[in-house]
Amino acid sequence: MAAVHHWYESNEVGEVETADISNINFGSVDESEIVPASAPVIAGEASYEKYIRCLFTGTWTEISNMKFWKSSGDYKTGEAIKAAKNVAYATPSDTPNADDDVPTSLGEALAIKSAEGEDVIEYGATGVSGYSGYIRLQLQTTGATPAGAVNQKQFTFQIDEI
Predict the structure, then answer these.
(1) What domains are there in the chain, each with its CATH number?
(2) With bands split at pLDDT 50, 70 and 90, how would you rate the model's confidence at 1?
(3) pTM of the predicted model as reported, rounded to 2 decimal places
């Protein structure tokens, strides 16, 4: 049997976790599974931060070399997606953060650790949750960002599994 990964998003004061999310839509509310048309980000402002992480279930020996990057999708004028790796959860904010731009290639990808800060997640090890560390994402715009929907982006999360 192989590892199965599930994406989780955390929101709100005190952390409310949503399992098996299907998108990472950015918006002007602190919620998972946002419909962007219902919670648009106004040009010149930032979205609420997204705290996502992966939970591995199933059976495996070792998961390592976890990498995360934006693999496709063009930015519009004045648009950026900021990212930080292996951060502690904090109540999401719509204040623009100082994180770096999300990497756009495997060579520059964020190196993600386990929730416990290890480079490897060993199956069944004592004290191992099976979670990756948090990835914090935020859409930031400028006054030059055109009105309307932004282009769809795709993020890639790559692992090595034994």
Answers:
(1) 3-161 (2.60.40)
(2) low
(3) 0.95
